[in-house]
Write the structure tokens for this entry.
Amino acid sequence: MSRYCLITGASSGLGRELAIQYADEGWQVIAVARSVNALNELHNQHNRIHAFPLDLTNTELFSAAVEQLAQQIPALDLAILNAGSCDYVDATNLPLDTFDRTMALNFQAQVAAVKLLLPLLQKSELGTLAVVSSLAHLFPFTKAQAYGASKAALSYFADSLRVDLTDSGVRVCLIEPGFVDTPLTQKNDFKMPFLLQVEDAAARIRKGVESQQQRIRFPKRLVWSLHLLNLLPYSLRCKVAAGMRQP
Ligand SMILES: NC(=O)c1ccc[n+]([C@@H]2O[C@H](COP(=O)([O-])OP(=O)(O)OC[C@H]3O[C@@H](n4cnc5c(N)ncnc54)[C@H](OP(=O)(O)O)[C@@H]3O)[C@@H](O)[C@H]2O)c1
């Protein structure tokens, strides 16, 4: 019997690699993103990947698309809410539109996705909702006020969601990666410690989801470094964070 997986942000980076790996494993993959061409290209390479072009921040269209999807598949076994964006900001002149955009995609669209996809996940014997956040929210990184805040909100949302979905038949998996080499990070002009290749990162996510981990954080070297920084006295932690600023 086919297993169905929906992956958002599947046109590039982590989502694209996850789509390929799940399709290679025999899953039917519903690949969501805005770039129709990139999704069609994926479908041409892997006939188990199905293009599902959609702007996730348009809740009306998203809702209609899920209704359509519900006519086509019996159940959703796995939903990986991976789409996200990262823009750095100038704290002396906060770009409000960047905050609006970032929260709309990284947080609001994820909430909408949970609401809309939950009934389909509940039709599966054990549906899994995997939410891709980030380790970024564990430390106050320079220029990351919009991105870090959106991921902090998302991680909290997923954690508390798990509490109330305990008896729903859907389990929640929170994914918090460190730096991964994707188009999102390729524009960074600073040194990214313990940068992982996208194939490696996607494989770690698949392994964690498969073994029903509640939270997948990697790489461990970065996780422990951030934990250690957070053990510092608060004023010293602030100094270390300020020391990471670029001129
Ligand atoms: N790379 C890292 O180091 C890293 C670390 C921690 C966490 N993460 C998280 O991992 C996730 C994937 O990141 P990535 O590095 O793979 O980034 P990426 O290569 O830039 O991919 C982002 C994906 O999101 C999709 N997307 C953006 N806006 C969308 C919208 N309005 N509607 C639908 N899809 C949309 C993009 O497709 P379209 O443009 O075609 O819509 C693209 O497929 C993000 O949530 C990111 O925060 C990444």
